[in-house]
Amino acid sequence: MSDRLSKTIQRFQSKIDSGSFYEAHQTLRTITNRYVKAKQYPEARDLLYQGANILIQNKEYASASDLINYIIQIYEEEELKVTNKDAKLKLIELISNLPNSDPSLNDLAKASITWSQKSEGCKNFGDNDLHHLFGSKLLQAAGEDHIEYEQKVKLFAVAELHLVLGTFESIPIYVNFLVETAKANPNIDPGALLARPVLNYAYLKNIKFVQEAQTLFLKSIDIETESIGDIRYSKTKPLLNFVQLLVEVLQKDPQTNSQKYRKLYDHYKPELQKGEILAPVEYLGKLYFNLNIGNSNNQGGLMANLMSGLFK
């Protein structure tokens, strides 16, 4: 950092120490504006990064979030890509240090994901690491005891979407939350919960993630089952049986297994209706096997259609 930037940060720190948070924040923004107008982007980014860190340390999260958002704007103007490791890691570091329930997270998620979509390889959904970051934080917020039920539902819906688009490390975070939900709701067929990651990852044709999610879920669920081949069969949990059979069929050759999928669908259709997953299963039949069953054009609330009573 240059001497000029160091002196600016020292003055900023002095204002913070004296409790002049608003003045410190606005002054830093004004100085940053000058750097941006002069296209001195590294200096502007460095100043905002240091300032945001100081504000976070002093729990001035709203002001810190504003500076983080400004950093993303500079990334956009400078045309920095998410492949710039230093830029991405600094952004992840700052956002990681915000509270999990910070109200600015959704806006920061939209801004940072939109920025990342301008990079090759991220154009469809955005950067996986950023999705993992926001999904992890929002899911932790959803699990906090003081959060109201309706807010939990909203947080989970957004967190789930991010985690599905996240990394391999997102899977245990996602699945563990569903396992804990299943344990807290013993009257729910756990297959209804296992269906969430299985269907969501299957939508993306990510069979590796489907398999990992199922393996982790079945390892952690304590219910009475018997082994039939690779299937943990339950006499009282038909959806759990269905999801495991679904995973088996999805891994097979679509040219020879379309009828197996159709038979599986027909056999479990009443249970799929009860579990509110009929439409997603119909859609997968079209996606994988070109089967026109039911309203297969309906994606069934892709990745964010919450099942009723999930958190009760």
From TrEMBL:
It comes from the Eukaryota. One of its GO terms (cellular component) is TRC complex. Pfam families: GET4. InterPro entries: GET4, TPR-like_helical_dom_sf. One of its GO terms (biological process) is protein insertion into ER membrane. Belongs to the GET4 family. This is Golgi to ER traffic protein 4. It comes from Candida metapsilosis.
